[in-house]
Each structure stands twice: as C-alpha cells, then as structure tokens.
Amino acid sequence: MRPLVFAANWKMNLGPAEARDYLATFLKAYSPQPNRQVWFFPPAVSLEAVATGLGNRADLLAGVQDVYWEPKGAFTGATSAPLAAQAGAKAALIGHSERRHVFGETDEQTGRKLAAVLEAKLHPVLCVGETLEQRDAGRTLEVVTRQLETALSGGGGARAATARVTIAYEPVWAIGTGRNATPHDAATVHAAIRAWLEQHEATETRILYGGSVNLKNAADLLAEPELDGVLVGGASLDPTGWGELVRTAAV
Ligand code: 13P
Asked: Which residues contact 159 (CB under 8 A, 6 or more apart)?
C-alpha cells in the first residue's frame, strides 16, 4: 500500500475544549495504520490543545490553517508561522480557497506566506483550484499552473520551494457543495500538476485532493493512484466518522 495523507481542515469549528473531546474519541477509535498519516488543521486557538493531545504518535500531526508572512509585530488578529510552531504546529495550509475567495488573498500574498512557512521550518500544504466559471471556460490548468508558479516563486525560487511542499488540489466548486470531482477529473488535474512539478525537479511531491470528500466517496477517489491523500472539511468534524474514513478509505 502506498503512503497516504488524510488531512482534516476543521475551518472555523471546534474550540479548545471541543478539540480535546474530539481527540479523546478519535484516539480511542483510531489506532495507527500502516502507511497512513493523519494531519489536523484546527483553528489557531485550538492548536496547542490539538498538538498536545496528539502526543508523540509519529502518524499524527497538527498544523495551522493560515499564517501572516511577518514573524511578529503589530499585526492585530494575525498568526505567524513561528508563533504557530510554538503552539505545536508542524505544518500549515497556505492559499486555501476560502482565504483566496472569502478574504481576498492574492497569489502574490500566498507566495509570501509560503516563504514564511518554509522559513519557520513548517511543512506547507499549498492549496490550488479553479472556480466553476474558470472550469467552464476550460481554464482549469492555466489557473492552477499560475497559482503554483506565483506561490512557489516566493519561496526562494520555484525549484527550491517545490521540493518542500505538499499540494492540495481543491476545485472551488466542489468545496462544501456536496459536488465532488469524479476520480477521473481529479486524477487528470493531479497528473498535470505532477507534470509541472517534475519540470521543476520535484518528483516526490504529494498531491492531495479536497472538495466534498466523505466516507462514501473517499475509497473511490483514493483508488486513483494519482491521489496521494485527501484534504477534508465537513466530514472531518465528527471524530468517529473521520476515524472510520481514515481506516477504511485506502484500498
Ligand atoms: P469540504 O470537505 O467541507 O468540502 O471542504 C473541503 C476543504 O475546503 C478542505 O480544505
């Protein structure tokens, strides 16, 4: 079985006490499985509770959902990569579509954040994906390539950064809509991303798929060898269901 990443993006859900209850249930239900890693992205206020709750299990880690690019200072409301690391983060989501489309983050800002995450020695998960309008206009690959190029050129040159990231392909139209890409649709875009990465000498980079992944469709998606894992929002919020998804989705 190939190594797979199951990443849970809790978005703006589960405060510290709820996070502790969640982990108590999850850890009881889920014992380490071969070749599977489970990454949790709680809201920043719950990061320390999650990082502490996961203990030293090598198959589990905690990460932050977003960072600002400056390391510290007068930036009210922001979390930096070094501060997230102090709270126990080992990874960071960067350029999530909600940051781009709800909060207006640009490709260039995503690039600065990615560079800051690398500088803080956290593992970046760079999210890319097209809107429905862009997909219907046949622009998926152009949009995704532009997002990769702009974000990764901020990290000390595309080549240096490219080998040190995980990519999450999340078509915007599939997020929280119940409408997911077919395994074939996802694999086609993953293959294009992989080709771009290979041109930049990154041959080991993992590519996760996200967008309405759940217990019912995860196994079919992961049957596509192009998918190295999944990034899951809504279906990761129930610890029992999430444990079952991680345990049963890999073929
Ligand atoms: P849903 O799984 O709720 O569609 O969210 C996907 C996502 O945005 C994960 O980052």
From this structure: 200, 201, 202
Q: Is the CB of 217 under 6 A from ligand 1?
A: no
All domains of the chain, ordered by start, with CATH? 4-248 (3.20.20.70)
Nearest atom in ligand 1 to 41's CA: 10
Give the tokens for residue 72: 């510290």
- Of residues 26, 68, 29, 65, the one with CA closest to residue 47: 65
Q: Would residue 170 show up in a list of annotated catalytic residues for this protein?
A: yes
Q: How many residues in total does the chain contain?
A: 251
Q: Helix H segments across 91-238?
A: 97-101, 107-119, 132-136, 140-153, 158-162, 183-199, 218-222
Chain segment 9-37, per-residue pLDDT in tens: 999 999 999 999 999 999 998 988 889 99
- For residue 160, the model assigns a pLDDT of 64
User: What does pTM read for this prediction?
Assistant: 0.95
Q: For residues 23 and 236, is the Cβ–Cβ distance under 8 A?
A: no
Cβ neighbours of residue 134 closer than 8 Å, sequence gap 6 or more:
140, 143
